[in-house]
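In response to reviewer comment 3 from the previous cycle, which asked for concrete evidence that the modeling workflow produces usable outputs, we include below a single protein chain processed end to end. The sequence was submitted unchanged, and the resulting structure tokens are shown without manual editing.
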Amino acid sequence: MRIATRISRLGTETAFAVSAQAREWVAKGNKVYPFHLGDINLSTPQNIIEAANRYIVDGKNGYCPSEGILSLREALAHDVGSKRGVSYGPENISVQPGGKPTIGKFIQAIMNPGDEVLYPNPGYPIYESQIEYHGGSAVPYRYDETDKGFEIDIEKLRSSVTDKTVALIYNNYNNPISAESSREEMETLAQLAIENDLCVLSDDAYYEMLYDTDPLSIVNIPGMQERTVILYTFSKKFAMTGWRIGASIGPENVIKVINKLNVNDESCTNHFHQWAMVEAINGDQSGSKAILDELRKRRDVSLEGLNAIEGIDIATPECTFYLFPNVTRIMERKRLTSVADLQVGALHNSGVSFCTRDHFGRPQEGETDFYIRFAYSGITMEDIKEGMVKLKDYFESSD
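The workflow returned the following structure tokens.
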């Protein structure tokens, strides 16, 4: 059977390839310390679980509106708007089966074949995949490493805008590098979008995964709410990665298009999950706080372990659950030229499994340093401590 040629333009989430390597290593009788996948091995708060069970029993098992049930859209409109200092109504909300669908539906709604879309690189690989799959040109912008973390290379971004550019994808609280924009950086991005009449996808997957600072939103800047679609997900805050429920939030005319895509793609999002999400938003928040408190402890222990390794010096990120250390000096010590060799070597010699910079978009011209990514959301505290000791031994050896 023939396969459509457009499939050749479709990428994948390559972190899952590392998961396959880890599973194979375990199958051979080895222990693996899983820092590779941004899953969460903590329980969804009990009040949400109980609500989901209750609504199954109550018969919320049939079709529901493609745009989502009204009660959830009203709850999301109030919650998301009030936390960002703007006003939304249910007409601005389209419920989705996860956060990821918003990426492809946003691109289908605003991009024509041949248009250019700016996206962060390193960044979530599905941006690049969906732009190219739908016939657009994916134009990367980069981050510069500083002693406080990472900042957007604004001049590189500005120089990448052409008369074909229609949109900017912006992931503040970034996966994989945990970059957090200052207010000044965010205002500069907003000015660039307004001056060039760009639509913006604000990927807010980690918007509330902050440890000591309050989140900032680009929709709060005058002129931005009417040109921005927010990607919202319950997955991180409530440890619900497998529940697959989120939302697209933005201007009514774009949301209407996304609702039409919902009809074509999945009819509707899981019915009883939507009712349970009303409880997630309006109910007891202590479970979510406990999740964040545990992630903070894991971050601190992971940082301590990495910074104890000769050749690594990483700043403390205040958001997400990722660490993105520069391992250039480790590569030099081990006389390696491929960061993939370091990743496989670490798995086979220490059991520690992690992703590399290359799993988050094609490396850009001029990149000379090497980076790897640790996700500490799916690994116990005991295994973090044990794994970091083993990783230190491997990284500090010359072979």
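The mean pLDDT is 96. We consider this sufficient to address the reviewer's concern, and the full set will be provided in the supplementary archive.
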